[in-house]
């Protein structure tokens, strides 16, 4: 026999007559949570608390840069260089975003003159870097197909996106790719973003960048898709001479044209 609270739950949290079950499988959003009297079912409250704890942990857990650098050794990009911002720890990094945009010391960087620079920054989710950055960098190398010279990777800690402008200028690269941990949410705590800046230098703004976000397979954007879009943006930036609002993603254009061509061939000429 059900208790009064159990009989008032709508929809059911598990299977049965849960009309939201099929839709819930298609999204990480919290939908159709049900109720127990005037509140949420205990299971949903505990799930929320667990997700909140995971998001907090993702923000506050520092990146072990040296250990992560070892994971990049098999990519044949050269020895990674580790730099940090002027934020001394995670607490100051969160309180002072401006310090995260300024380098502490870039003397370890040498001008490379390479066409592409790759910065891997902890951002607001070092966990995302640990979980996904190696796979994403490998996918980028595949997408570039050896067309460009690439500088040794730089690992940046306590870093905001704009720190990459200083790094890119010091490396002397033409186009900079910043891979950074995105702000965790209650659905995803390990998502990466890519910020692409052509001709990086201090003073660039968000209008000068292109962003690809929500990279966290299997639920988010897959590495190969993000890499394909990035490669198309790099090609476009080199042709256009700039990145940002003037540069559009054309990675899907060829696929659309192929579909249109196939449709035309299947049209009945009569």
From TrEMBL:
Enzyme Commission code: 4.3.1.7
Function: Catalyzes the deamination of various vicinal amino-alcohols to oxo compounds. Allows this organism to utilize ethanolamine as the sole source of nitrogen and carbon in the presence of external vitamin B12.
The UniProt record lists the keyword Cell membrane: no
Names of required cofactors: adenosylcob(III)alamin
Gene name of the record: eutC
Pathway it works in: Amine and polyamine degradation; ethanolamine degradation
Key words of the record: Bacterial microcompartment, Cobalamin, Cobalt, Lyase
Protein name as it appears in the record: Ethanolamine ammonia-lyase small subunit
Subcellular location: Bacterial microcompartment
NCBIfam families registered for this protein in UniProt: PRK05465.1
Single GO MF annotation: cobalamin binding
Lineage: Bacteria, Bacillati, Actinomycetota, Actinomycetes, Mycobacteriales
Assembly: The basic unit is a heterodimer which dimerizes to form tetramers. The heterotetramers trimerize; 6 large subunits form a core ring with 6 small subunits projecting outwards.
Predominant location: other
Entry similarity comment: Belongs to the EutC family.
Residues where adenosylcob(III)alamin binds: 161, 182, 211
Domain of life: Bacteria
Database matches in Pfam families: EutC
This protein's record includes keyword Lyase: yes
């Amino acid at each position: 026999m059900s208790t009064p609270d159990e009989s008032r739950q709508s929809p059911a949290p598990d299977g049965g007559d849960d009309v939201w079950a099929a839709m819930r499988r298609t999204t990480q959003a919290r939908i159709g949570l049900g109720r127990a009297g005037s509140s949420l079912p205990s299971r949903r409250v505990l799930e929320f608390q667990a997700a909140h704890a995971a998001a907090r942990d993702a923000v506050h857990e520092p990146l072990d840069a040296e250990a992560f650098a070892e994971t990049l050794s098999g990519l044949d990009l050269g020895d990674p260089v580790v730099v940090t911002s002027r934020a001394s720890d995670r607490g100051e990094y969160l309180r002072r975003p401006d310090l995260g945009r300024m380098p502490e010391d870039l003397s370890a960087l040498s001008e490379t003159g390479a066409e592409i620079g790759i910065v891997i920054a902890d951002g607001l989710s070092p966990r995302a870097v640990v979980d996904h950055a190696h796979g994403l960098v490998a996918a980028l190398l595949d997408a570039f197909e050896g067309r460009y010279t690439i500088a040794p990777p730089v690992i940046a800690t306590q870093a905001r996106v704009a720190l990459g402008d200083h790094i890119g200028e010091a490396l002397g690269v033409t186009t900079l790719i910043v891979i950074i941990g995105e702000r965790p949410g209650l659905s995803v705590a390990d998502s990466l973003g890519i910020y692409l800046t052509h001709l990086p230098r201090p003073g660039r703004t968000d209008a000068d960048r292109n962003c690809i976000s929500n990279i966290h397979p299997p639920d988010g954007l897959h590495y190969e898709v993000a890499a394909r879009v990035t490669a198309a943006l790099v090609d476009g930036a080199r042709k256009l001479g700039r990145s940002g609002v003037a540069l559009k993603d054309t990675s899907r254009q060829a696929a659309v044209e192929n579909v249109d061509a196939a449709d035309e061939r299947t049209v009945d000429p009569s």
